[in-house]
Write a structure and sequence with these properties.
Helix content is 2%, strand content 44%. It is mostly beta strands and 259 residues long. A hairpin with a 2-residue loop joins strand 11 and strand 12. The radius of gyration is 17 Å and the shape is globular.
Length: 259
C-alpha cells in the first residue's frame, strides 16, 4: 500500500513530552458484518503455559509508568489517561478523526503482550482501541520522533495494522510521520463488536514475525522487521465520535524465548 503522510498537531521538538502524537488522517473505511461470528472450538492460547512468569502484570498499569515529564498523567486537548486503581486504565480520545498514542516507560524486545478492553457505552463505527509497540527511547537525544507498530480494533469489528515511521525536519526539528499499511481493515469474527463488550487483544513478535490474537485465538500473522525493540504504548482512534472512551482492565506481558 502507498504510504500516506501524517503530521502531528504539536511540533515534537517543541513539547517537553513528545510521547503523545495525534494525527488527523483517517484510516481506510472498514466494512462490518451484522452478526457475531461463531466461537472456535479448539483451545485458546495460554501464555502462562507457553512462556511462564510474566514480565509485566497489574503493576504495568500504574501511575509512574505513564506520567508526563511534569509528573502527571496526560490530559490535554487530544488524550486523557486515568488510572483509578493499579491494574486499570481509562483511555479517552478527545478529537474526532484523530489517532493518538501515548508511550509507557516500559521497553520490550521479543514479546507476547495482551490487553483486555471494555469498549464502553459509546462504541461504534470507526472508533478503535489498541496499542503501539516498539516506540522510541524515552526523551531520546537527539529526538527521533515517534515510531512503532500500531494495532487497532474498531467497534465495528475490524482489525487494522500499520507501521508508523518518523522523519525529522532539519530546519525546525519537527517530525513528519509516514504510515505504511501492514494490513488493511479486515473483518474479524472473533471480535465482540459494539458498546459494552469485552475483548482481549494479544500480540506476539519474534524476529519480525508478528502474530495477532483475538480473545485467545490466533487471527493474523504478518512479517515486518523494521523495528526490533522499543517502548510499549496505548492507542486510541475516535473515528467520527467527538470523544471515545474505553477501559483497559488487564495488560500483561511475557518475554518470548527465541532459541
Amino acid at each position: 500500500a502507498t504510504p500516506f503522510i501524517v503530521t502531528p498537531t504539536d511540533a515534537d521538538a517543541e513539547t517537553p513530552t513528545p510521547d503523545e502524537s495525534p494525527t488527523n488522517t483517517s484510516p481506510p473505511q472498514p466494512t462490518a458484518t451484522d452478526t457475531q461470528g461463531p466461537t472456535p472450538s479448539f483451545p485458546t492460547f495460554n501464555p502462562e503455559v507457553a512462556y511462564g512468569a510474566q514480565r509485566f502484570d497489574a503493576a504495568f498499569l500504574s501511575h509512574n509508568n505513564w506520567i508526563t515529564n511534569s509528573g502527571e498523567l496526560p490530559n490535554d486537548g487530544n488524550i486523557r489517561l486515568q488510572i483509578p486503581e493499579e491494574g486499570t486504565m481509562v483511555v479517552t480520545g478527545k478529537n474526532e478523526g484523530f489517532r493518538t498514542w501515548w508511550f509507557s516507560s516500559a521497553t520490550i524486545t521479543d514479546v507476547y503482550t495482551e490487553m483486555v478492553v471494555e469498549s464502553g457505552a459509546a462504541c461504534n463505527g470507526l472508533a478503535s482501541f489498541g496499542m503501539i509497540l516498539y516506540g522510541p527511547q524515552q526523551n531520546a537525544v537527539p529526538r527521533t520522533g515517534s515510531h512503532g507498530y500500531v494495532l487497532m480494533i474498531s467497534c465495528a469489528g475490524n482489525m487494522f495494522m500499520e507501521r508508523l515511521d518518523a522523519t525529522r525536519d532539519s530546519f525546525n526539528g519537527s517530525a513528519t510521520y509516514l504510515a505504511e499499511n501492514i494490513f488493511w481493515w479486515t473483518p474479524e469474527e472473533l471480535i465482540q463488536r459494539g458498546p459494552n463488550q469485552t475483548n482481549k487483544l494479544g500480540v506476539r513478535i519474534i524476529d519480525g514475525e508478528i502474530t495477532l490474537f483475538v480473545n485467545g485465538y490466533e487471527a493474523i500473522t504478518v512479517f515486518d522487521d523494521t523495528y526490533d525493540n522499543g517502548r510499549l504504548g496505548v492507542f486510541v482512534y475516535n473515528g467520527e465520535m467527538p470523544t471515545f472512551t474505553y477501559t483497559i482492565t488487564s495488560w500483561r506481558t511475557w518475554r518470548v524465548p527465541t532459541d
